[in-house]
């Protein structure tokens, strides 16, 4: 039986958003797609859309975009293992 559920909205207990942005920005940059913090905030956080829409708009195939997302996930996992996440 479940007795409790622990829920952390990003930025309450740990801050992973900056690392997620960093990983996403790096993967897109390798493919000549510039991602600013403002774009990330607007597209991903405010509009709730996948940031990789930028790659699709540049003519990348859905399969290539899926590979970018996998690469971003690997980079993000590496950053999580090595980064400082706890909030003060």
Give the helices and strands, then pairings.
Layout: H1 17-29, H2 37-46, H3 53-57, H4 62-82
Helix pairs in contact: 1-4
What does it look like?
This protein is mainly α. It has 4 helices and no strands. Helix 1 (17-29) crosses helix 4 (62-82). The termini are far apart. The model has no long low-confidence stretch (mean pLDDT 88).
Are there runs of 5+ residues with pLDDT below 50, and where?
A: none
Number of strands: 0
The coarse overall form would be elongated
Tell me the major beta sheet.
Answer: none
Q: From the helix content, strand content and strand pairing, which structural class follows?
A: mainly alpha
Strand portion: under 5%
Average of the residue pLDDT scores: 88
Helix content: 55-70%
Number of helices, where a helix is a run of at least 4 consecutive DSSP H or I residues = 4
Radius of gyration based on Cα positions: 15 Å
Strand/helix succession: HHHH
**Could you give the distance between the termini?**
33 Å
Features:
88 residues; mainly alpha; 0% strand
